[in-house]
Amino acid sequence: MSQPKRNNEGFLENAWEWTPETASEIAREDDIDLENNHWEIISFLRGFYREHEMSPPSNRLFVKAVKEHLGEDKGNSIYLMRLFPGTPAKTACRIAGLPRPTNCL
Questions:
Q1: CA distance readout (Å), 58 to 17, 80, 105
Q2: Closest C-alpha among 26, 34, 84 to residue 59
Q3: What is the mean pLDDT of residues 38-46?
Q4: For 15-36, how does the pLDDT look when each residue is reduced to its tens digit (9 = 90+)?
Q5: What is residue 101's predicted lDDT score, i.e. its pLDDT?
Q6: Domain-by-domain residue ranges, the chain?
Q7: CATH code assigned to 18-95
Q8: Which of the following is catalytic: 70, 81, 104, 105?
């Protein structure tokens, strides 16, 4: 099976072609082994995208949205940075097959 087409930053061109296998492959490129905590955030992001038809537009809003849905333990920058190093919103959205957040560097 061929992998979905990606842009030069590694984001899927079509979020609806995403599969869990695609997520695992993208995560491996970032040296991330996906565990239950990762999948919880990925699932949240996929639901957010279905509901709003966009990725959380910035890291700050990503953290806030996670906090509202999953609680303070998971909705904080340190927790999310441990799971998705670098810019958590950008890394997590790429793995979740979503478009690049608009305000992430």
A1: 23, 13, 9
A2: 84
A3: 97
A4: 999 999 999 999 999 999 999 9
A5: 86
A6: 18-95
A7: 1.10.10
A8: 104
Q: Is the pLDDT of residue 37 over 60?
A: yes
Q: Both tokens of residue 12?
A: 């899927």
The verdict on whether 93 is a catalytic residue reads no
Q: What is the pTM of this model?
A: 0.92
Would you say 84 and 41 are in contact if contact means Cβ atoms under 8 Å apart?
Answer: yes
Could you identify the residue written with the tokens 């992001």? 45
Q: How far apart are CA 74 and CA 29, in angstroms?
A: 24
* DSSP-derived secondary structure for 1-17: -PPPPB-TTS-BS-GGG
Tokens, residue 75: 């909705």
